[in-house]
Amino acid sequence: MFILFLWLCCHLPLLSAAQQKNPDHNISISAVNEPISLVLDKLSRITGITFSYNPDHIEASKPISLNMKDKTLAEALNVILPPDNFGFRFSGKQVVIFRKSIPSTLPLPQSAQKETSGSEDAGQPAPDTVFITKTSIRHDTIALRDTITKFDTVYMMRTILRDNPITGKDIFSNQTNLSKEQTKTLKFEPGFSLSWLMVDPIYDGPEKYQQKLEKYRNSNSGSQISGSIGVDLKLHYARFSLGTGLTFTAFKGKFDYSYETSTGGFFRKDTLDAYYTLIEADTAWYYVIDSSYIPEDIQANRYKTSVKHRFFEIPVYLQYSHPAGRSLVYVKAGIIAGFHAGSEGLMILPEGDGVTEMSEVNFRPVVFSYLFGAGILVPVNGRLTFDAGLTYRQHFSSVLSDFPVDVRNRSFGIRAGLVYKF
Hints:
CATH topology of the largest domain: Porin
Radius of gyration: 42 Å
Number of strands: 18
Number of helices: 8
Order of helices and strands: HEHEHEHEEHHHEHEEEEEEEEEEEE
């Protein structure tokens, strides 16, 4: 039995260390003078692992600072809570944190006391009495206390025990604070967004087409149901973000154009006056005649249809975000590369009064636009952020190629989306 106890005493630390093996991938975390409880909450959101602990044992309100990159969960916990004083028990997606007790010296058994009292020069236990076995049993009792600590799972409900009344800061303490996540660490976040656009077409051209341009402007108007849908990709560093993505955008409008044509007709001649002159012996007569054209066939033409321009777009923009409570307000500016994906509807011919199909007009395969925007980022939970804002965009050049009249689109819109945080 003595040999068995001695073997357990030597191997118990190794068994405990084996239980602390962390299967998760490497993580990165940073904090500046933040309470230990808040750092553990942030670590829980990053790893998806729940921590159970007694706040009194770990001094949950004690502030700490750290900046770790590509570390395991066990390495991060050893920095937050020194392993000399604390132990960790991994169980699936839960980690129990317990404080190690310093074993006290156990009283000698009666048999040993009798042996030592009978010896005059024995200030220490007899060499063959191995009291480390008793110490190992005491250490085994600590492991049982670790099992009892599992009942501290109640602290996952964030029960607050204190004399001061509970305030809103305590009730919403689990809500993500986006301003504290603006660290000098590169972060990648994907997202999804929808935009509603109010389109206003712009027409321009040489001076000889100025009268024609009025017909273009009067016959075309923007639609109220234009919009875009797409995925967003952002790279964050401190308060700045570089964004891109892939978006499908549809510019819709209305076309309403009418004109008249006439064919045939005849001239009606009226004599207004007659006079004569004497040239020697002959009289020469001269007549003044008024002629007017009477049309025979007048035809009214009217075209009324919808107009659609579709683009696949890749935006590139720079965004600056400023803290506003737990949220962020931002402004952004950038450029959009639009790849033409088809158009439908009619267009007025630059020469004459007729119209032509959009399919008969040459469009530029790629057209660029500039973009300005502003909005707000609001935390939903530890992983999702709601993004809402306003945008303004306009084409740099005409969407048509080899056409005397320039056609550009500008739009003002409302944008909403969700951002996912790894």
